[in-house]
Amino acid sequence: MNSLLGSTSAPTFDDPLEMLQACHGRIEAQCVTLHRLVDHLATQEHDEQAVQAARAILRYFDTAGQHHHQDEEQDLFPQLLSTQDQTAASIITRLLQEHKTMEAAWQSLRPLLMSIAAAQSKTVDASIARHFIDVYAKHIELENETLLPLAATLLNNEKLRAIGQSMAARRGVSI
Fold this sequence. Notes:
The chain is mostly helical and 175 residues long. Helix content is 78%, strand content 0%. It has one domain (16-170): Four Helix Bundle (Hemerythrin (Met), subunit A), CATH 1.20.120.520.
């Protein structure tokens, strides 16, 4: 629904595929913040802006980012696999491997951000940050352009409702 200002309403758990895509947008925004943080630290002193940016990235990927992966691995992927669609199965195999790569990238980046957030370090290894950003960008592209549209064709309303309810419950939200 459009408002008078022309914006659309936020997705809800009633449309879990739209919710997942919106999460991808938030992940991309955090990756932009990370890119800016690396540039900021390379050209300016470590300051309160750097601390706040590092804290925001940590907060997001330690909570919402984890929930997002759980939404996919525990809800969306099993429902898609239950359709017996071979294309979906192949994509999911690749995405699960990418989740492992993304988790490893996060485990490399997280201590660096913790150090910035605690004002103990004044730099972030740009190659580690760039790798993190790149693996997420590639992953999101595959999900947005291929998996989510496929899911929209394969999953019926009952399966989508179950996914949305589980996603909401994971966050302590009742729908």
